[in-house]
Amino acid sequence: MDGIVFYATERLDAVVEFYVERLDAEVRIEQPDCTILGYGDFRFGFCARESADTCGILTFVYPDRDAVDRAHERLSDVAREEPHGNPKYDIYQFFADDPEGRTVECQAFLGGVDL
């Protein structure tokens, strides 16, 4: 089975551009007021609305620390922190903000976890 997580947005074009240009997501489907993006098997969409959904975390999983570091370079102006190890979850990660303030996490599993 597949699924898609949707978020309402007040800034559809800017938000889509952020995920495509800075996080390497791909536009999968364009609809009249919604855009569905994909990053590997991760599907998420944004729909133009009068208010934005900004709760939750969009987590992008990378294969290793180097890929997380490269993501941090692309997001350095919106990153909340430097990449770091998180021993509780055995991950390497950092958090950033998208154009509407949604939390974006970039992480790699250190223990060889394969989703």
Automatic annotation (TrEMBL):
InterPro entries membership: Glyas_Bleomycin-R_OHBP_Dase
Top-level lineage group: Archaea
Entries under Gene3D superfamilies matching the protein: 2,3-Dihydroxybiphenyl 1,2-Dioxygenase, domain 1
Record-given protein name: VOC domain-containing protein
